[in-house]
Please model this.
Amino acid sequence: MQRMADTPAPRLPERDRPWMMRTYAGHSDARRSNELYRGNLAKGQTGLSVAFDLPTQTGYDPDDELARGEVGKVGVSIAGLGDMRTLLDGIPLDQMNTSMTINATAPWLLALYIVAAEEQGVAKEKLQGTTQNDILKEYLSRGTYAFPPGPSMRLVADTIAYTVEHVPKWNPINICSYHLQEAGATPVQEIAYAMSNAIAVLDAVSARVEADRMGAVFGRISFFVNAGVRFIEEHAKLRAMAVLWDEIGLERYGVQDERHRRFRYGVQVNSLGLTEAQPENNAYRIALEALAVTLGRNARARAIQLPAWNEALGLPRPWDQQWSLRLQQVLAYETDLLDYPDIFEGSKVMEGLVDELLEGAREEMKRVQELGGAVEAVDYMKAALVESHRERINRIESGELVVVGVNRYTETAPSPLTADGEGGILVVDSAVEAERQAAVEEWRATRDQDAVDAALADLARAARQDSENIMPATITAARAGATTGEWSQALRAEFGSYRAPTGVGDAASVPSDDLAELRDEVEVVSEALGRRLKILVGKPGLDGHSNGAEQIAVRARDVGMDVVYQGIRLTPKEIATSAAQEGVHVVGLSILSGSHAELIPSVIGALDEAGVGEVPVIVGGIIPDADAARLREAGVAAVYTPKDFDLNRIMHEIVELVAERQRSQAGVRA
Amino acid sequence: MPAGADLGERLRSGDLTVAPAVLNLVENRSLAARAQAGELLAAVSPAALGHEPRAHVVGITGPPGVGKSSLLSRLVSEWRARGRTVAVLAVDPSSRRSGGSLLGDRARIEVDPADGGVYIRSTAVGERLGGLAPATRAAASALAAAFDVVVIETVGVGQSETEVADVADTVAVVVQPGSGDVLQFLKSGIMEIPDLLVVTKADLGRTALRALGDLRSALRSLGSREIPVLAVSSVAPPSGIGELVDALDAHRDGIDLPARRLRARRLHSLADFAAEHGERGLRALGGRRAAERWLEQQDPGLDVAALERALAARAATMS
Model:
């Protein structure tokens, strides 16, 4: 029978090529990470995805006070050209496609990559890869910003303007909807805020390139998205983003070439939904989420990296990452996924979902534009995200949102997967920090100091000159041997430092009925104390993932406590000073970067020094059981991990803790 | 609980490390603590000191979101650069339903945690609408004996600005360019004319200049020609901060300080009385205005607790 002309053939004439397969990887130092990369490539990985540690991401050298406890923890420590050489040793950069998760210091890491390639004899015109470089979402969610929004947007625009001309195959920015979802965004918010962020970036670039280059600029903008376990709606979300992107290109920027308007994205599927309880279930969640970004050909990812099953427990080991890579390979090479044209074309359900998302997203984008665009609307978007995340947590608490193994079907046999000594995760050698400190000192001692001084002075001059592109001076500084901390400090001196809005101030309260009992408890203990129960919530170290701390702060307020919330990136000394000056009754600390073993005891020591050693400390974060025991030995009153999703229970325990101390002190006096 | 008199003694000797204990005491609403707080205030009263407490008490107020905290951050640095010690009492609005609050201002005031010359305390305003936290008046009077500058930062326009004026030597109202409400408040008399007006975000250029002009002409039309209106920018590079400190100093040098402080103590005692005895107590005194007039007749040497006792005694005889 003859097929109708507009009915697509059920099979592609030629099977599609698979997407690029990566694993987000890197830890400790450049040498160990290089070994890891070579191993991953040997296993069939087709691109690299570099994870940097927090000091590198926020622009501090390994021997900086703020870097303490964080060096080499969540990624590799790169302090300068020597490290970048080692990291890429033996990897042919003319063939490799490298994605770097780097934002505030993106111009610097890109410069190091360009110079390292040059030393390999590879011209920058040949380089392929991505710098994440989406600074707005750092203010909204991830927290690794270094400079205020204005100058940061300039750095983003500079890297785009530079690469479009000089590194033409590079993706200078990945607009990240990924972290918005991690921060609690609904699909509509995720689409709307990502698109609004993209518009802010494009507007900034349009002021820095010739008008006829905007088509090429638009064509180099790619996205980094997330996919949760509701995989049908998640797929619809990607289709909606493709529609909007095409529209924005044509209508707002007049991009005529259709290829330039194509929605290109890479993906890391959801980490927010991965659970610490029964972590083996995460393997299924990851597989389903991978379907969300591959099922329909019209909105299929260009590059995929999958988290490991145990990321809610700590850092994955090479085997854990291999297991995730194998999932990609099974999906691409064993199944028939790549044999077909788009399987959703003509689906009324899919079309309906897409329309629904488009309508909501357009409305929300309009609101952001009315506030003056994404840069101006950071406060608004941040508060909206905190609010959505709070709602999500409420639904998990109430059981309305089912999370298997967490709030339903919690019975479990002991898992052999976490039975080994370290609980089934990678533990970074604690000697790494000292090694890295020695290495950066040696690097500084052996370089041509005059050349570095001159390069940094020129960098500062370029920073002051708003019309100048920062990249050439940055590349010169990289070549001369400046360090990551020096590059950042030179710019901090010109641009100033910055604290992002915390977003908690405007978050709405929980319906009061649910909290009446807790409020009574708070009233009772406050009466006994003579003043309202006061808690300090803080995040020591460089980790910027503030969702947990924000939710604790908001709930503590809602049950009637006075909450001192200072946001992210605090030194132990700052936390102790605040605790003492504010006269708090309890201190709550949140750390997700794995640096708790070093930082929590430092805070306890600093509290002692500040004369408030008697104030109880509670800790929340991704903390393995063995570490939790050690923290309690060091004087921590309670340790909470992602499996403690019941905020009210935590609040109740905090009140109990303070009441107990109050009673024992009153007893001492009586 | 530390003895109020001891804390007062340590404040008089210039011991700044005692500040947290002072605040913990004056915020404590238990009867025992309130008695000790009375002792503390007596120990740092002008009668005990032989002079007015040394500090310049500065009120900084304005609508939410105008950049008060960023401005304060720069002001603190400037005062420190001039060798002055600073205490900041940041008063935050609290959630009325739960009684709890999120005290976020501290995050925006950047200071070196090792600097013992800066003290910052955030206080929730409690059950009251706008205005000052009950302990803020006491805290300001006490810390004024040890610090060079005591800042009271409040949110809002109207009520809070009036209450701050009862406590502070100098009140600066902070506004941002393009917000017309302050102009309206001034014209309609909802807001009393402050000692100083500060326009933030001077980096916005023309918009800020226009706001400056609008405010100046509004003040002229109200016959207040001499109120300084300053433009500042808190983003790097900051501007106008040194000039603002100079203007604050100039205001303090131009006023009758003992008279203003005496009025502050009297109003403080009335506020404490009202907090304790409520509407019924005020009625017994013949109303707030009558009570204020009666206070004006009292011995200028009386401290706050003594004045409050006198008010209570009068209310008891009159009812």
User: Anything to note?
Assistant: The interface with chain B takes residues 148, 150, 494-497, 499, 502, 504-505, 509, 512, 515, 519, 522-523, 529-532, 553-554, 556-567, 571, 573-574, 576-578, 580-583, 611 of chain A (CB under 8 Å). Chain A has a mean pLDDT of 92.
